[in-house]
Specification:
single chain; 159 residues; mainly alpha; 3 strands; globular
Length: 159
């Protein structure tokens, strides 16, 4: 097997491979393929696509068992895109789905360090724009409103 866990997943899951072959041969643009994969694979694996899909009960159970807050595929797509902005949108979606499926989301502090440098504040607000496969992570600037148009989800991070 190849050392890359995502490549291992792609090679070892025949049903995933069928989904991806069908999507990639559809003639759609790369972004439309990413969007289709976002919805189809999230449904196929039973993953929460958006933060609002996570119920209070699921949130509490995840927090208790994992010791961290649950994350949706949408949020993970935004974080992956922040870290790798020039990556193919299909790759961004696949990394996000893999991470959420395996309960191994990326550390938001990595993004905070890119944004703030080594002096990450004790608390800051992040927000996500976009619809699905085009999710984008943003950092709220001092004095900026988090409830402006286009913001899908916002969260205060306390370190």
């Amino acid at each position: 097997m190849i050392e890359n866990p995502i490549e291992n997943w792609l090679l070892s899951d025949a049903r995933l491979k069928e989904h991806l072959e069908r999507i990639s041969s559809s003639g759609m643009s790369e972004f439309d393929q990413a969007k289709t994969a976002f919805y189809e694979l999230s449904d196929f694996y039973g993953l929460k696509k958006f933060p609002e899909d996570i119920t209070e009960e699921e949130y509490e159970k995840y927090l208790e068992t994992e010791g961290s807050e649950p994350r949706s595929v949408f949020e993970e797509v935004g974080i992956v895109r922040y870290l790798e902005p020039s990556e193919d949108p299909r790759g961004i979606v696949m990394v996000a789905i893999y991470n959420i499926l395996n309960r191994d989301p990326l550390d938001i502090d990595t993004c905070a360090e890119m944004h703030f440098g080594k002096a990450i504040p004790k608390s800051y607000v992040i927000y996500f724009t976009g619809q699905d496969a085009d999710a984008t992570l943003n950092f709220l600037k001092e004095g900026e409103a988090w409830h402006k148009e286009g913001i899908k989800y916002a969260s205060k991070i306390i370190r």
